[in-house]
Design goal:
The structure holds three protein chains of three kinds.
Chain A: H1 2-20, E1 26-36, E2 41-47, E3 60-68, E4 73-74, E5 83-91, E6 94-102, H2 103-106
Parallel strand pairs in A: 4-6
Antiparallel strand pairs in A: 1-2, 1-5, 2-3, 5-6
Chain B: H1 2-17, H2 44-55, H3 57-85
Chain C: E1 7-10, E2 15-18, H1 19-36, H2 41-50, H3 55-80, H4 85-112, H5 118-147, H6 161-166, E3 173-176, E4 181-184, H7 186-202, H8 207-218, H9 222-246, H10 252-275, H11 278-300, H12 304-346
Antiparallel strand pairs in C: 1-2, 3-4
Helix pairs in contact in C: 1-2, 1-3, 1-10, 1-12, 2-3, 2-12, 3-9, 3-10, 4-7, 4-9, 5-11, 7-8, 8-9, 10-12, 11-12
Classes of the chains: A alpha+beta, B mainly alpha, C mainly alpha.
């Protein structure tokens, strides 16, 4: 009985792994430069992952990226200057955002 | 004492009736929070799960339940095995109320 | 010295957490939960908060950890014969429907805009009633024992409301062998439904309400009430974990870290019930409920810090008490076993 249960659990796990291995989204974080509500585009300046006390969100890299947020789930409305973290799919040259998190406004570290 | 209990019992339905309630114990009211896990900072299995969290939350939820259940079972049987080594009788007990 | 290995990165919440703290919280709540048969979400949240866990993740993480932990305790209780599965399954129906109804009522009231601090006070009222019930029951049983009145094979009991409720004979009548009771199937369904509604509407797991309800209204022996309640907590916990994860409010890494501590604690708490008398468990439960109540009152008046201190203090005290029961009982049992073996060798 126990063995059958363990086996079926393992089977289920393998199936799930195979099914879910397909999708992979990129994540990028940076300062919001512009949030265009009509075109549903967000422009950010990307930050790197060198976190420190002086730069808790990483250091600016100077690279600007534009994300299509038409289908994205957006948390607290982004405003220029906010630090955003986006999960997105790279579709050719377009970056299609899935979720947009307002890191600085939401501030999860605060209880 | 008996009268007191009767009174208290009468209070139960009354208090149920005047319960204008929120999910208080569930903490602060949920504002529109969207969380993106930072997959740039993690590797391996953690990366896989953080990624799943970002892209397919339903699958992540199924995984969470299965893994929690599996972990509970594994730890339960493991601890059981260890406790049996102590030589205590873990199969029977007397019920004494007072 | 570099203490960074003591901190673990939580990928979703994006914070560094002192992991031995998580193990410790898991351990204490595991011990208490295994002993009382409740989830204990109200005890975990302030602890997580102090460790710097974001509130948004505290509740979901709590619930998932509680589901896993109850599983460990249920396995153990099941071996003692403390879980009445028949009763458990019948009650799941009531619990599930009840929780949904409770949640619906909340949403309906929210639409009406009738939400206020009244909830807290009602919650406090309930906790007060429960602890009052537990303590006055204890006092009554104590008095009976002094007078030498013993009814039934279970020993002295204070309140015996369930005897009256058992007289209601609406078919189908069911015999619950593990608990040794014979009553209408509607009694456990109704009780679980009521506790379910309250739980859904107060946003708690419901172990706090269900455990005394099992004892006083259905007449389940204390030990079996604990085991059966844990079974319910496990099922509703897994369901809760699923819905909270769908909302993205869970940190799986923390759940696993806490579970390792909880697994050990759950064993200790569960085995300790073997050495405790039913009324010992009931009394300690009353104390826990009382502290929960006081901490909510403190929170209401914005004494957040003292509330947290009170809860954590209570947890550690009760935890030490349970571990002491367990160690004392286990030592006595092993000594008796050894003495028996010696006697046998001499004979």
């Amino acid at each position: 009985m126990k063995r059958i249960m363990a086996q079926s659990l393992a089977m289920l796990a393998v199936i799930l792994l195979v099914v879910t291995a397909a999708s992979a989204a990129e994540v990028s974080q940076g300062k919001c430069l512009q949030y265009d509500k009509t075109a549903m585009k967000i422009t950010i300046e990307e930050y790197d992952i060198q976190f420190s006390k002086e730069a808790p969100y990483g250091r600016p890299t100077g690279v600007q990226s534009v994300f299509d947020v038409a289908k994205a789930q957006i948390g607290i409305t982004p405003q220029p200057g906010d630090i955003l973290r986006l999960a997105y799919d790279q579709n050719g040259a377009d970056k299609i955002a899935i979720k947009v998190m307002n890191v600085s406004k939401q501030d999860l570290k605060k209880k | 004492m008996k009268r007191l209990t009767h009174k208290l019992l009468a209070m139960v339905p009354t208090s149920i009736l005047c319960l204008p309630v929120t999910l208080w114990a569930a903490g602060d009211k949920a504002t529109n929070i969207v969380v993106v896990a930072d997959t740039r900072r993690v590797t391996g299995v953690m990366k896989y799960f953080s990624n799943l969290y970002n892209t397919d939350i339903l699958m992540y939820a199924i995984w969470a339940v299965i893994l929690t259940a599996a972990m509970g079972c594994i730890l339960g049987f493991l601890m059981d095995f260890i406790m049996e080594r102590t030589g205590l009788d873990l199969k029977s007990r007397k019920i004494i109320e007072h | 010295m570099d203490a960074s290995w003591l901190y673990m990165f939580m990928p979703i919440a994006g914070v560094q957490i002192f992991w031995p703290g998580l193990v410790l919280i898991g351990f204490s709540v595991g011990t208490i939960g295994g002993f009382f048969g409740m989830g204990g979400a109200w005890m975990v949240t302030p602890g997580l908060n102090i460790l710097g866990f974001p509130m948004a993740f505290a509740i979901g993480t709590d619930i998932a950890h509680i589901a896993g932990k109850s599983m460990v305790s249920t396995i153990r209780h099941s071996k003692f014969g403390n879980v009445d599965y028949k009763l458990g399954f019948i009650m799941i129906i009531g619990t599930m429907i009840g929780i949904e109804c409770g949640a619906q009522i909340v949403m309906w009231l929210e639409r009406l805009g009738q939400v206020g601090p009244v909830v807290r006070w009602v919650y406090v009222g309930f906790l007060f009633l429960i602890s009052l019930m537990v303590f006055s029951d204890y006092a009554k049983a104590h008095k009976k024992k002094k007078q030498g009145i013993v009814e039934g094979e279970k020993g002295v009991e204070g309140f015996t409301w369930y005897k009256t409720l058992h007289k209601i004979k609406i078919p189908p009548m069911v015999h619950f062998k593990a608990s040794g009771i014979y009553c209408s199937a509607w009694l456990p369904i109704l009780v679980s439904f009521t506790t379910g509604v309250l739980a859904g509407f107060l946003g708690i797991g419901g172990g706090l309400l269900r455990m005394p309800a099992l004892i006083y209204f259905i007449g389940v022996p204390t030990h079996i009430a604990v085991g059966t309640d844990l079974f319910e907590v496990m099922i509703s916990g897994l369901y809760g974990a699923f819905t909270y994860t769908l909302k993205g409010r869970i940190e799986l890494v923390a759940v696993f870290v806490m579970l390792t501590g909880a697994a050990i604690g759950a064993q200790i708490g569960t085995v300790a019930t073997k050495y405790a008398k039913g009324y010992g468990i009931r009394l300690a439960f009353g104390v826990a409920v009382l502290c929960c109540m006081i901490s909510i009152i403190l929170k209401q008046f914005k004494f957040e810090m003292s509330a947290a201190i009170l809860i954590l203090g209570t947890i550690s005290t009760i935890c030490v008490y349970i571990v002491a029961i367990m160690l004392k009982g286990a030592a006595a049992e092993l000594r008796a076993k050894k003495a028996n073996a010696q006697m046998a060798a001499q004979a």
